[in-house]
Amino acid sequence: MIEATGLRKQYGDFTAVDGIDFAIEPGEAFGFLGPNGAGKSTTMRMIAATSTRSAGDLRVLGFDPETHGPEVRAQLGIVPQADQLDEELRVVDNLIVYGRYFGLPLDYVKRRSEELLEFAQLTEKRTARVDGLSGGMKRRLTIARGLINAPKAMLLDEPTTGLDPQARHVLWDRLFRLKEEGTTLVLTTHYMDEAEQLCDRLVVIDKGTIVAEGSPAALIREYSTREVLEVRFGSARNAQAAEAMAGIGQRIEVLPDRVLVYDHDGEAAMSAVHERGLSPITSLVRRSSLEDVFLRLTGRSLIE
Ligand SMILES: Nc1ncnc2c1ncn2[C@@H]1O[C@H](COP(=O)(O)OP(=O)(O)OP(=O)(O)O)[C@@H](O)[C@H]1O
Fold first, then answer.
1. Which key words tag this protein in UniProt (predicted)?
2. Is any ligand 1 atom within 6 A of the Cβ of residue 37?
3. What b/e sequence results for 234-272 when a residue is b if at least 16 CB atoms lie within 10 Å of its CB, and e otherwise?
4. What is the ipTM of this complex?
5. Is residue 281 domain-shared with residue 197, that is, in the same domain?
């Protein structure tokens, strides 16, 4: 559905996207996971035919977005990072006006708008002004708006950034529904839990390059251990305690606020720490996550 080879974007001397390859299949939920500034939005803009590429090849639904922008845009649903809704219009009118931009017939747009309000759980708000909606409602309306043209693929740039946990869960549920209905989802995120919840497959992107690719479970299997022990000794003592823990587990990472011990059995690692006479202030055993994968691959945390 979307295929890139050697895709690159330069802004003057600065390379924002440095020759990346990826292929997104129909019906798949595909993610770009990476920290701020990794080049995710730039990649999305090139797919959405709103930004040109500096080199490489890109095909979206069989078209080159650079030469066939209107054809590409007609078949994509776009959910940009900032909502860009018409704040002064009523909720339902945001959908109708947007549908009319696509040149869709008014009858169709009106019917579709009601369906989409239902889907976005905004029917009760249909005549409310947008500026009175919560952040989560605005996001759901932006998603509904992106669906007005019954797109083959939805591009979602950081769909839940800035939302509270409850609003994020409501949004994930709606996106999951879309995925179940067969819509291809392409999303960027710097939240590992979002990537784990929604993506069938993802690429980990850092400084404009792809550093790993696979399903969340496969990435965790390949780049991390089953469990992680997190211990805190206080910021002044973490590094020293980590040295005293050398040899425990398969790998140790020292972060400013905690030490991570990677092992298939976190409880066993915890016992080993205590056997060395160390007493952490707090300790916790958890399953490995994509955050651990990112740390392993880049030496940095996803959210800094
Ligand atoms: N128009 C532009 N001119 C110059 N540099 C840009 C421009 N747009 C983006 N960049 C730079 O390119 C890099 C990648 O930006 P991009 O927005 O794609 O990152 P991102 O991974 O989406 O992060 P974010 O979550 O912050 O949007 C950043 O260093 C950014 O400052």
1. Antibiotic resistance, ATP-binding, Cell membrane, Membrane, Nucleotide-binding, Translocase, Transport
2. yes
3. eeeebeebbeebeebbeebbeeeebbbbbbeebeebbeb
4. 0.94
5. no
